[in-house]
Amino acid sequence: MSRLHEIGPVMLVGAGKMGIALARGWLDAGLPPGNLVLVDPVPGDAARELAEDFGLVINSEALGLQPNVLVLAVKPQIIAEVMKTLAPVIGNHTLVLSIAAGVSIASLSEGLGTGRVVRSMPNTPAQIGKGISGAVAGPDVARQDRDAADALLAAAGQVVWFDAEGDLDAVTAVSGSGPAYVFNMVEALAAAGIAQGLPEHVAMQLARQTVIGAAALMEADPAPASVLRQNVTSPNGTTAAALDVLMASDGLTPLLERAVVAARQRSEELGRN
Ligand SMILES: NC(=O)C1=CN([C@@H]2O[C@H](COP(=O)(O)OP(=O)(O)OC[C@H]3O[C@@H](n4cnc5c(N)ncnc54)[C@H](OP(=O)(O)O)[C@@H]3O)[C@@H](O)[C@H]2O)C=CC1
Ligand SMILES: O=C(O)[C@@H]1CCC=N1
Known about the structure:
By secondary structure, the chain is of the alpha/beta class. The protein is built from eleven helices and eight strands. The site of (2S)-3,4-dihydro-2H-pyrrole-2-carboxylic acid has 4 residues, from helix 6.
């Protein structure tokens, strides 16, 4: 039996892009639909579709419930306001699992009046069970709370637990936001193909399938990324010519480092709001 069966009622507050990605992952991994309720003042198409597909309870009926796990998936900018409305939902037995970027365990605990808080950072491949999450448990989190949070996050993919909460800002910058960097690389590679005279739809097909194929190969072959890169690189060939540009001192590595620093700083800023 999946660990998800043992968690009991889960309330997802914020049925947006990431909330729905997680909810789909949980339901696909065996969370009983009767144990999941959605709270979102204006549920979008994806939320309504999910609710319809699985017969989920949405909004008003949900608010009378004190769930075993309250998952907070609203934007960091409004989380303080949203927490003010959630006091009646927090029972003695309620664990809070936040996925909000930057928002500290201390402010979550203060806002909700409970120390049973896990702060986490998943990413959107959660929707197909291929995500990765970082997580930190607050000081009042018991072993069984941590197991429940781990089961929810593990349904979405891999989970890495950290002792230091500050590490989650770096996790956010690397893997939380990371899928967007890869999608942007597909856009950039397609644009480069178009600049070389390929039709737009063909350039996009080539770029997209190249990233899909490379990711699938990396999943199937445990060799380090550097070895997989070397396997593409014939001596003095075309890839070597391109990598001379990408791996130059002003190439992809310093660019990504700047991008990750910017994301980390933004995560820290969001936490100060
Ligand atoms: N997107 C991602 O890849 C990731 C996001 N996160 C975190 O997840 C959280 C949500 O991000 P994301 O899904 O991208 O954002 P979205 O805007 O897509 O989702 C937030 C949802 O919360 C809803 N909402 C607004 N007010 C309330 C309320 N009072 N009660 C309940 N729900 C409310 C919004 O509705 P409406 O649109 O009508 O305002 C929206 O549906 C953020 O904290 C973000 O940091 C974490 C990891 C990855
Ligand atoms: O862009 C954001 O702020 C959120 C957090 C990580 C991914 N999306």
